[in-house]
Write a structure and sequence with these properties.
The structure is a single chain. By secondary structure, the chain is of the alpha/beta class. The protein contains 28 helices and 17 strands. The strands form four sheets. The protein has a seven-stranded mixed β-sheet. Strands 8-9-12-14-13 form a five-stranded mixed β-sheet, covered by helices on one side. Strands 4-5-6 form a three-stranded antiparallel β-sheet, with no helix packed on it.
């Protein structure tokens, strides 16, 4: 295809910019070399993207999915060695790639001929590494190489042991690695390089936190990951609000952790001091059985002893009552939220032990409220005030938590558009007719993309030291609306029935009516209008969500709206396995199309290392492209073409004498 001729007028107009560009490319030769390089990159296959949602603290399963690239490494090993290795040998090779240090330790204990093992294994790993690196330029692969072995790995990747002229050269490198006792280190480096190259970009569609015990460990992994982005989920926002000092968010983070007897992230991860809460709860609820607040424990793990369960129940009740007081104060302070009807302590009759909701009277399942003043039910006692101040300080001085939140701000947002895919965690509020719902944020009334942008601005304002104090306070409060507000794009339900679930047996009162987005998202027309609003273009465009667990075990299909919407919350957290019938999804987008990988529950890292147990995964082809997608078809391709156009202008400027070469 003939490129349009460069206009001399446009070159003259851009001379100032071209002079700046010329600092990096000072000669005609350097410009043409870069143009050739970028043009070549455009014709490489599109790199692989992985999409995960709703990890909910399941660190071991998350890490394993990253290590095995959602089964892609296993498939690659089968392609390369399907006819030359036995099944157990392929399984051992995969386990080595996933967990190199641990697998090598087992090999050293049981293999008597390590030299042969190293020789064979190094050749196999180089073959795998050469295959997974084939989509990338040498320059990109070089930047991914471990510094210690960069030169050697690069030589091995680009030289074949089948080439007679280089066979001795290749073999001597392998033998020298073994002879100098560096084989273990070299194998570990190759395995991690394979893991890294198997996934080019990782998209997390929200909810890293709550339920499982390892959210802080997931964040540690992401902080060191090579290329990732995050669309904030409602549970992430709750923790971010707690880190910003919102007392309601702090109380709710504690309440949820205690509800599931899971305080590892709080105590071990972020060093949150729970002693003041435990002391207050034991003193205040000493004679209270707190039956309603007994923790929900995982049947597959060892339950806390009776004494510990009793203390957790007391702490759980203490913080739940404090949360209900604090949120009532916020609803009164923010009439624009239209949530005054959720000031439910107003409707409780302490003497009778009843509550009136929508004209119906219900008996309370727990009637002991020693800290609630019937005449002023939302006022904290002095002891509760002191406790909340200590907890707030504990969250705000947690260096690790603040570091993780800073990473979530840097890599995250309310939505993202990548390669014609619109990503957000939960919803975009809609009206019954499918039109965008207007929502008030501060003084503005916004909808659709503008709503998501305004919400993101509010979140960032809460952490902006340069912002006005009143603005920061308003933004800090807003985290609570994002958590449970009816028009919040991270919630989008009629109510959060926390009070009802604790205190009313009638399950009809527990119902949370979902917003219209959840009811209309099966419509291809609705999805098209949403993508139009967000400026998503392309022949193959999609919305990708998490948030609502897909009941795959009951036949629900995660692919909706004629293939235009994909819901990939398959229940990573053990708490959701009964609901979904599976243990999570990974969506894989490679150069040939989309594959949805459905995961069975992960046993354990120890089991995977000892027995080579992998996550059993089922792959469903969602959409295959008519022809293989190249880098030129991606967002990066569009950027590269813009860079090429600028470089061609610079080339013209040099050749016409508008700018002198240096």
């Amino acid at each position: 295809m003939t490129k349009p001729k460069i206009s001399l007028k446009s070159v003259r107009e851009d001379v100032r910019y071209l002079r700046l560009l010329g600092r990096d490319f000072p000669t005609v030769s350097s410009v043409t070399t870069e143009i050739i390089n970028l043009e070549a990159i455009l014709h490489l296959p599109k790199p692989t993207e992985h999409f995960l949602a709703d990890l909910h603290g399941e660190n071991e399963a998350f890490r394993h999915v990253l290590r095995n690239a959602s089964g892609n490494i296993k498939r690659k090993v089968n392609e390369l060695f399907g006819n030359t290795l036995r099944e157990q040998e392929k399984k051992d090779l995969c386990t080595l790639i996933y967990y190199p240090e641990q697998k090598l330790e087992l090999v050293r204990q049981h293999d008597r001929n390590l030299s042969d093992y190293y020789q064979t294994t190094l050749n196999q790993l180089i073959t795998v590494c050469r295959s997974v690196s084939s989509k990338y330029t040498r320059s990109k692969v070089r930047k991914s190489l471990p510094e210690e072995f960069a030169y050697i790995i690069e030589e091995l990747l680009h030289e074949s042991s089948d080439d007679r002229n280089k066979q001795a050269y290749f073999n001597v490198i392998i033998q020298t690695i073994i002879g100098t006792k560096r084989a273990d280190h070299f194998i570990v480096a190759l395995c991690y390089l394979i893991q890294r190259l198997a996934i080019d970009r990782l998209h997390i569609l929200g909810d890293i936190y709550d339920r499982g015990p390892g959210a802080h460990l997931i964040m540690d992994t992401l902080c060191n990951y090579h290329n990732w982005d995050l669309q904030w989920g409602n549970h992430d926002i709750l923790w971010m609000g707690a880190a910003a000092g919102n007392p309601c968010c702090i109380a709710s983070v504690l309440r949820l952790s205690l509800r599931y007897a899971n305080t590892q992230t709080l105590e071990e991860g972020y060093a949150i001091n729970m002693v003041p809460l435990a002391t207050f709860a034991m003193e205040t609820y000493a004679e209270d059985p707190c039956v309603v607040f007994e923790p929900k424990t995982d049947p597959d793990t060892e339950e806390p002893d009776q004494k510990t369960c009793r203390l957790i129940a007391q702490m759980h009740k203490a913080i739940a009552i404090i949360q209900m007081k604090l949120e009532g104060v916020l609803y009164a302070a923010h009439p624009e939220w239209n949530m005054q009807d959720r000031r439910l302590l107003d409707f409780v009759d302490m003497e009778r032990g009843t509550v009136v909701l929508e004209g119906e009277t219900y008996e309370l399942t727990d009637k002991r409220f020693p800290t609630v003043d019937p005449d002023d039910p939302y006022r904290l006692t002095p002891e509760e005030n002191d406790l909340m101040e200590k907890l707030r300080r504990s969250f705000q001085i947690s260096e690790r938590l603040q570091t993780h939140v800073a990473e979530m701000l840097q890599h995250g947002g309310m939505f993202g558009v990548y390669n014609s895919n619109l990503l957000f965690h939960a919803s975009v509020p809609l009206n019954e007719d499918g039109s965008l719902r207007e929502v008030q944020i501060g003084d503005a009334v916004v909808k659709g993309k503008e709503l998501m942008q305004r919400v993101e601005q509010m979140v960032r304002t809460a952490f902006d030291d340069a912002a006005d104090e009143e603005e920061r306070s308003m933004a800090c409060d807003y985290f609570w609306y994002l958590w449970c507000g009816p028009d919040s794009p991270l919630f989008d339900k009629s109510k959060m029935s926390t009070f009802e679930r604790y205190f009313i047996e009638d399950k009809e009162t527990h119902h949370e009516e979902k917003g219209w987005y959840y009811k209309l998202r099966d419509s291809a027309d609705v999805c098209d209008r949403l993508m139009d609003n967000f400026g998503v273009t392309g022949q193959h465009r999609h919305i990708i969500n998490g948030h609502v667990p897909v009941r795959a075990g009951k036949g629900e299909n995660p692919i909706k709206a004629e293939g235009k919407l994909m819901v990939i919350d398959g229940g990573f957290a053990k708490a959701y396995h009964d609901t979904t019938g599976i243990a999570g999804y990974t969506l894989v987008y490679h150069s040939r199309g989309f594959q949805l990988v459905q995961h069975a529950p992960f046993t354990s890292t120890e089991e995977a290392i000892l027995n080579g147990t992998d996550i059993r995964s089922t792959t469903q082809i969602v959409e295959m492209m008519g022809q293989r997608e190249m880098v030129s078809d991606t967002d990066m391709g569009r950027k590269l073409r813009e860079q090429i156009a600028d470089l061609e202008k610079l080339l013209t400027a040099y050749r016409k004498g508008f700018i002198k070469e240096r």
